[in-house]
Structures are given as structure tokens and as C-alpha cells.
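Handoff note, outgoing to incoming analyst
You'll be picking up this chain. Sequence as last confirmed:
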Amino acid sequence: MKQALGMVETRSLVAAIEAADTMVKAADVHIVDLNYVGSGIVSAVVTGEVAAVNAAVSSGEEKAREIAEVISTNVIARPHDEVDKLIQEVIK
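Most recent structure output, in case you need it:
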């Protein structure tokens, strides 16, 4: 995987959707998935250039906090190729 990976994990589907919407509007990123973790926890995952993903995750986190609890956020600047295999399984 040549692009960065960013995640915003919330305790609300609505907050995760709002975070995903904000992330794609804030920077040039693409939504990879909304991952339903369980117990009301949902994570929005995006990919793109490192700077864009950092900006998107920051904006998404800020917007999600207005609606619900943000569990965690993370940006992986250069994911290993093995991580790409995991992401491709999720997309299928």
C-alpha cells in the first residue's frame, strides 16, 4: 500500500458517517470502509496522501466529537504491504 491509512473510531454510527463525510470534504482522501466493531462502536477508514489523511482525520475527529464519543483516531503513514491484504479483504 503506497498511501496512508487514517481511522476515526466512534461510539455512534451517525458520528462515524459524519466523520467520514467531513474527512472526504476536508482533504483528498477516499473512504475505504465503515467498520462495525460492535457495542455501538464504528470506525471510518480513509486512504490518501499522508498530509491529506492527517488533515482529514483531524477534521473528522473534531466533527465526530460534536455528536458522540470518539474512542480513538490513528494515521498510519506508510502501512506495510501485508496491511494492504487486510484492507483488500475488507473491501471485497
